[in-house]
Amino acid sequence: MFSGAPPVHLMWSDMFDPKKPKVEKPVDWRRISKLFLPYWKQEIQVIGCTLIVALLGLLPPVLTMWLIDKAIPSKDLVMVAQLVAAMIGAALFASFVGVYQGYLNAYVGEGIMRDLRASLMGHMHRMPLDFFTSTKTGEIMNRVSNDVDSIDGVVSGTLVSIVTNLAVIATTLFTIFILDWRLAIVSILVIPFMIFPLWPVGRKMYEIRKTTRKKRDEVHAIEQETLSVSGIMLLKSFVRERYEHERFYRLSTDLMTTEIRLAMVGRWFMAAIAAMVTIGPSLIWLAGGWLCINQGMTIGIVVSFVALLSRLYTPASALAGVQAQIVSALAVFERIFDCLDMTEEESSDSSSASSETLGDVDGEVRFDKVFFSYPERAEVLSDLSFSVRPGQVAAFVGPSGAGKSTITLLVPRFYVPQEGRICIDGRDVQSIGLADLRQHIGVVTQETYLFHDTIMNNLLYARPNATTDDVISATKAAHIHDVICALPSGFETIVGERGHKLSGGERQRLAIARVLLKDPKILILDEATSALDSANEALIQAALVPLMEGRTSLVIAHRLSTILSADIIFVIDGGRIVDAGNHEELLARQGLYSTLYRQQFLIETIP
After folding, report:
1. Sheet of strand 419-424, all strands in order from the earlier edge strand to the far edge
2. Do 14 and 432 contact (CB within 8 A), yes or no?
3. Residue 458 and residue 340 share a domain
4. Which of 110, 180, 342, 570 has the most beta carbons within 10 angstroms of its beta carbon?
């Protein structure tokens, strides 16, 4: 019965399931290199600066050789001063060029980091609702923030490090072969021992880094869940501080273990490289000493060679570290690219390429043989068909879990039905661009969400170009204007995390005002008055009657007293419409609606 693409949350879990066999993919170097493409001008300048610094770095060893072999033996103080001045001048100029190179390097690195963050954030905003209901917020935050941060060193320093070290090695090799080919051959004998172990060490770091990122996801998920206002209230109300501490400590210990493994892998290799840095000059002193004694080589050449070796071995060992860093960072690049490759909301159905717009909306809403189920759940809506005329107030009632909220989630395409059509003014919503579709729909849900910002900015989120008069009118209609004016800072009051500085009723009325400011043609109220006491509920109900005129309103309410005046009431049970009519008609039929109404009436009248 059901067709279409696999649910997004299943694709996500498959991607990061440690028990699921992974398909090894080749490293997408082309995709990684594209990150640097917008900054090619700065990269060319970086390479130029690198070459200049590399060439200037050759001068001190060569000038030292001339000091030892020519200036000092000839007792030429003028030459000594000139050579020393040249050393100082080269060092100062190299430092100046290095500072500019550092600026360019930081510009490129931070620019790439910004681009990655923006791409990930924008992609996450375009993911379907199912993705967010099936994925921990901490995991999402970790990918958007920490994964990008963890490759900062790679994108900001790797290019310069590779180019710099290669330039230094190339210029140094050229120089030492000019000075003496015999000592040059001795110098490069130890380099293979620095290079050969690179791949196995890097591969091991890659595997451990992937495990580390997974553990970090789990830690951040707990942080996100337990440090939010709702999470901390739940934790404290059930006295679970000790349990959460032990759970966090256990996961942190696992993370610590993997981090230690990551820190220790290849330590023996790096220790061997450090030994080679000492062994190489020792061999030069041995070979150079023999050549000085038996072949007449000057001491200045030997001293110059030993000084130049630091410019040969240090870059070689640095390249070894860069290679290991790159290989280990590939695990993070893989995670970032996997996230960016996940199917976005617009492309989740075959009609996503359509650029149709709604234009002027009358507000007719029609469901035609709609079937829908959530992933890993039984069918929620089955062969559901109904129609709401423009300007009607349609209420949906029924037992909990009957599918009422699901109906309202399908209208703005937060979810897509597996079968059937949902139409607005006779046009399938899947043929309409999402932005245009949702621009005409206003939603007030049971759980009100407000940003940690001012009341004014929370309201203007619905319509940034709204005037002050528009805002005041909306707040008055929602009966929240007097409350706002009574606050010390008025509309500039910070509402706190998720609006917790306001009461539940105030938050709900502020949310209603926000939707009214949007002025949509279709209004969805999902338990919009559930957080209000009787007095506030009466005020809101009185305000909503004239405000709903001219709009098609889909209202969900467990408290049936709030929808008595609805034009049509659909009774939902088991994902199907079992009855429909106005309040008097449904009561007269003595069906499910009548039963629900009598139950609520008895409960509400019991003293």
Report:
1. 379-388, 365-373, 419-424, 427-428
2. no
3. no
4. 570
The whole-angstrom separation of Cα 261 and Cα 257 is 6
Clarify whether residues 408 and 478 are in a common domain: no
Domain extent, residue 492, equals: 447-519
268 burial level (CB within 10 Å; 0-12, 13-18, 19+): exposed
Strand partners, 570: 396, 580
Contact (CB, 8 A) for 442 and 518: yes
Domain assignment of residue 109, yes or no: yes
Measured CA to CA, the distance from residue 365 to residue 390 in angstroms comes to 8
* pTM metric for this prediction: 0.65
> Any residues with CB less than 8 A from the CB of 398 and at least 6 apart, and which?
404, 571, 572, 573, 592, 596
Domain membership of residue 9 (yes or no) is no
CA dihedral over 317, 318, 323, 324, signed as positive or negative: positive
- CA-CA distance, 546 to 544, in Å (whole number)? 6
Count structural domains, the chain: 3
Are the C-beta atoms of 137 and 225 separated by less than 8 Å?
Answer: yes
Decide if 5 is inside a domain: no
* pLDDT tens digits, one per residue of 426-465: 889 888 888 888 888 888 877 777 888 888 988 888 888 8
pLDDT in tens, 377-435: 777 888 899 999 998 889 999 888 888 888 988 998 888 898 999 999 888 988 888 88
- Token couple for 448: 């009100």
Residue carrying the six token digits 């609606």 = 593
User: d(Cα 596, Cα 607) in Å, to the nearest integer?
Assistant: 19
Q: What CATH number does the domain containing 431 carry?
A: 3.40.50.300
Counting Cα atoms < 13 Å in the Cβ hemisphere of 52 gives: 18
In terms of DSSP bridges, do strands 568-573 and 576-581 run parallel, antiparallel, or are they unpaired?
A: antiparallel
**C-alpha dihedral, 243 to 248 to 249 to 251, nearest 10°:** 130
Tell me if 565 is assigned to some domain: yes
